[in-house]
Amino acid sequence: MRDHYEAAGKVASAAIANGDTIVHSYDTSSNELGHFGLHIESRNTTVRVDADPAAEYLSGSAVTRLTNKDGFSPRNLPKAKAAREVIIEDRDLRDFDGDIHVLEYQDGNDSTEIFDGIRVVCPIYAYNPGFGLQEYREVINNLVFRGRETFDIVADELDIDLTGEKPIEPESDEGSSRTFY
């Protein structure tokens, strides 16, 4: 088994050298498998780095959500299926070493899958001996750029107005659930 702690240490070291901030670290001690990760703040985006000891690489992800933006109500959001279709139709969006997932919002009263945002996931090859600051910058810049670009393209194609000014007001005391694929 590869030393995923050392690989994550390379990522943390490169993050600090890049001027990024390690906001949070976590480990899933309840599963005894050694999964853990980091949340890194880079260019006003939180990037999550997951270390799975059984994987051949670390996994980096960045999320952009509509429900985190001021002025949006879930009832004004388009269906998640429409966002998936935009991503499928635009081959340039999918032409990279990674995946794009559509995030969904489901309120407790309706089972309709509503578009809530984008999650971009890329491998981070920190086990490679040459991994350093340059490779870190490339993958982080790719995650941040691709996430924002994909979100903006989907929002434009689905005519989502991103200029709202009012904060989201909860409709009830009941919680909502968020899912992604």
Describe this structure in words.
Helix 1 (4-17) crosses helix 3 (133-157). Residues 165-181 have low confidence and may be disordered. A 7-stranded antiparallel beta sheet has the order 1-2-3-4-6-5-7, with helices on one face. It has one domain (4-180). The protein has 181 residues and is an alpha+beta fold. It is elongated, with a radius of gyration of 18 Å. Helices cover 27% and strands 29% of the residues.
Number of helices: 3
Domains counted in the coordinates: how many? Answer: 1
Residue-averaged pLDDT: 83
According to DSSP, the number of beta strands is 7
Q: Strand arrangement, largest sheet?
A: 1-2-3-4-6-5-7
Summarize the helix and strand pattern as letters. HEEEEHEEHE
User: Helix fraction?
Assistant: 25-40%
**C-alpha-based Rg, rounded:** 18 Å
Low-pLDDT residue spans = 165-181
Beta strand %: 25-35%
First and last CA, distance: 28 Å
Largest sheet: 7 strands, antiparallel
Structural class: alpha+beta
Shape: elongated
Describe this structure in a few short sentences.
The protein has 181 residues and is of the alpha+beta class. It has one domain. It has helices spanning 4-17, 80-89, 133-157; strands at 21-27, 36-42, 45-51, 58-65, 99-106, 114-124, 177-180.
